[in-house]
Request: fold
Amino acid sequence: AQSVSQHNHHVILSEAASLELGCNYSYGGTVNLFWYVQYPGQHLQLLLKYFSGDPLVKGIKGFEAEFIKSKFSFNLRKPSVQWSDTAEYFCAVRDYTNAGKSTFGDGTTLTVKP
Amino acid sequence: GAGVSQTPSNKVTEKGKYVELRCDPISGHTALYWYRQSLGQGPEFLIYFQGTGAADDSGLPNDRFFAVRPEGSVSTLKIQRTERGDSAVYLCASSPLVGGMHNEQFFGPGTRLTVL
Reply:
């Protein structure tokens, strides 16, 4: 069975600080990887995804993530956060052979202080 | 265009009652998914449909939970004999199949179910 671990439950940063949120998964096969964001009062939306190819993927709003297969990791990064990045961030993985089912981490709440 | 919609947005019921939660996916999306999200946790997979059929229902916790999608569009999640532990936000998502492959999922706002 797949599992996803997000190590940071709550991260507090000041504006312009750099961000890195950790995500590790356990599954030995081929996977698709996702980061979703949920802004206060809004529903989940996709930030970025990795299916294949270049392991460094760029998403919306200046976010990027790097897939390191040997470490089973897909960490999310942003060089300079803004107050508007305050939200909850979820990492998700799905098995390439059972692509209807995604497994989510428990989320990281990011608070950016102005 | 319209996104995924879910009704009701909130549902309060008493233990032992039956509830139905509705999901309207994005028009033309073949795949539809149901998740459950408890407080402080990420979404937990329940079931997904390709067209009218349930392709994977391995996440349904027990036989009190059932979902249908009779015409390949709207889906209803049905919970019988509700228990307090069923209280959660129930999320629906839909996605197009591109070349037979699942693509990104578009989530609805969820239905918050409270069982008293």
